[in-house]
């Protein structure tokens, strides 16, 4: 039902909401089923049950698209599910054994400073159980939201002084570096000191979704000549040097042609309810 132009979802099953968000995000019942590990029939049944519960159509079927009511529900559902995940993480922390530190990070968020800070924390407690998880930004942010990790360090490229466009609030900037286009040694760009990203729309790029995804850059239409799905920065640089395509990287990681309107940022997310080792690590990294 719709009252005062809003949908009442106080008693909606959260499993149905997650299925709805998956369909709304992927734009496909089959893609949502694959993402959630359900059959397509099960997804269809769950969406139908949600529409029956709310007494209003949420999606058109052919093609799959949100109705006005569905768009309203999508906005509410995303916030509610995030809050639920954060609450679950907080409760998990309350009953978790002490002395745990799990750091999740994207490949380009790792640095000597992070390594030294982690070493300082571990040296202060011989019994500390510590682990490092390396994955893409979406995976790391989700792990912080659900409490799988204690501290998240994520990186990306953005305009100078702009924060990263993260789906959750509370991130703190801990590092900022110049951005460069990494090119092969014999590339014509090596003769230049700076270049605008928009001027390279016709070049061939390496799409490295875990390390430096093309979709995160503020220019549309960049053409991928090769897709690299690993997380090893050294492998990505080797592919660039071999002439397979260009890549945007931080100046501290690779030599290249400067991008004056772009910087590389690293931001930190502390999981709600994280223990003292995680809090101490975040303090060390956030300090000037």
From TrEMBL:
Q: Name all HTH lysR-type domain ranges.
A: 12-67
Q: Which InterPro entries does this UniProt record tie to the protein?
A: LysR_HTH_N (IPR000847), LysR_subst-bd (IPR005119), WH-like_DNA-bd_sf (IPR036388), WH_DNA-bd_sf (IPR036390)
The GO terms describing molecular function are: DNA-binding transcription factor activity; transcription cis-regulatory region binding
Q: Which UniProt keywords apply?
A: DNA-binding, Transcription, Transcription regulation
Out of the domains of life, which is the source?
A: Bacteria
Similarity-based family:
Belongs to the LysR transcriptional regulatory family.
Name the chain's protein: DNA-binding transcriptional regulator, LysR family
């Amino acid at each position: 039902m719709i009252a005062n132009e809003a949908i009442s979802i106080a008693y909606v099953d959260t499993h149905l909401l997650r299925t709805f968000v998956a369909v709304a995000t992927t734009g496909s019942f089959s893609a949502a089923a694959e993402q959630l590990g359900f059959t397509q029939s099960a997804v269809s049944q769950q969406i139908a049950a949600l529409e029956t519960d709310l007494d209003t159509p949420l999606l058109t079927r052919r093609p799959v698209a949100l109705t006005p009511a569905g768009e309203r529900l999508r906005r509410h559902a995303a916030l509610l599910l995030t809050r639920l995940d954060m609450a679950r993480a907080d409760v998990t922390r309350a009953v978790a054994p002490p002395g745990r530190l799990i750091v999740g990070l994207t490949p380009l968020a790792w640095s000597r400073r992070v390594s030294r800070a982690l070493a300082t924390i571990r040296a202060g407690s011989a019994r500390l159980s510590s682990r490092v998880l390396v994955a893409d930004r979406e995976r790391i942010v989700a792990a912080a939201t659900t409490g799988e990790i204690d501290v998240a360090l994520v990186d990306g490229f953005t305009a100078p002084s702009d924060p990263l466009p993260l789906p959750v609030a509370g991130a703190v900037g801990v590092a900022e570096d110049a951005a460069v286009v990494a090119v092969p040694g014999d590339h014509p760009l090596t003769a230049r000191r700076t270049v605008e990203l928009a001027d390279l729309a016709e070049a061939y790029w390496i799409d490295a979704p875990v390390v430096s995804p093309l979709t995160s850059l503020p220019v549309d239409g960049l053409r991928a000549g090769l897709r690299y799905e690993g997380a090893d920065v050294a492998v990505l640089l080797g592919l660039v040097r071999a002439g397979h395509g260009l890549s945007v990287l931080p100046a501290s990681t690779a030599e290249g042609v400067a991008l004056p309107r772009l910087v590389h940022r690293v931001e930190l997310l502390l999981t709600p309810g994280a223990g003292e080792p995680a809090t101490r690590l975040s303090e060390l990294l956030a300090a000037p």
